[in-house]
Amino acid sequence: MKKLASLTVAMGLMASLAATASAAEVVTGTTETTKTTSSDAVTTVTGVTYLNPADPVITQADLKPATPQIILTKLTAFHLSAGSTTAIGWLGAQTVDTTGVITKDAMGNEWREIYTWLGKAWIKVPASAYVINP
């Protein structure tokens, strides 16, 4: 019971620290203090910059164009290289993500490089597959 109470107190403390940190504003600038004839001091802040929470964190420069995806509708072999006749594995009906690299062989078949659990591999795009271009 004591461990549960300690854990609850620790979680509450972390939550309050997180709330305080997220509520803090970022302010930069210089502070000037001017004394008047009385004992009161007047503080003037110049050159203040506030962090606008509406500013996007991710900008257009951070975005990369998406690569095409292929929806496989039947069992499809994948290979180590484009144009290879030896399959290193088989993929069932699923959607696979491509690296964006496309080649054509001498027969006119389209080969696309994909990501698999073994790393990058190549598939000959079957006629029954759907290619989704972003």
Compute the average pLDDT.
Answer: 80
Strand content: 35-45%
Structural class: alpha+beta
Mass-distribution shape: elongated
Number of strands: 9
Low-confidence stretches: none
CATH topology of the domain at 69-132: SH3 type barrels
Total helix count?
Answer: 1
CATH class type of the domain at 69-132: Mainly Beta
Helical percentage: 10-25%
> How far is the first residue's CA from the last residue's CA?
55 Å
SSE string, helix = H, strand = E? HEEEEEEEEE
What is the level-2 CATH architecture name of the domain at 69-132? Answer: Roll
Radius of gyration: 30 Å
**Main pleated-sheet profile:** 5 strands, antiparallel
Query: Which strand order spans the largest sheet, edge to edge or round the barrel?
Result: 8-7-6-3-9
Keywords: Signal
Signal peptide: 1-23
Q: What does this 3D model show about the protein?
A:
- Keywords: Signal.
- Residues 1-23 form the signal peptide.
- The chain is an alpha+beta fold and 134 residues long.
- The chain has a domain at 69-132: SH3 type barrels.
- Helix content is 16%, strand content 42%.
- The chain is built from one helix and nine strands.
- It has one helix at residues 2-23; strands at residues 27-35, 41-50, 69-72, 76-78, 89-91, 94-104, 110-116, 119-124, 130-132.
- The chain has a five-stranded antiparallel β-sheet, with no helix packed on it. It has a two-stranded antiparallel sheet with strand order 1-2.
- The two termini are 55 Å apart.
- The model has no long low-confidence stretch (mean pLDDT 80).
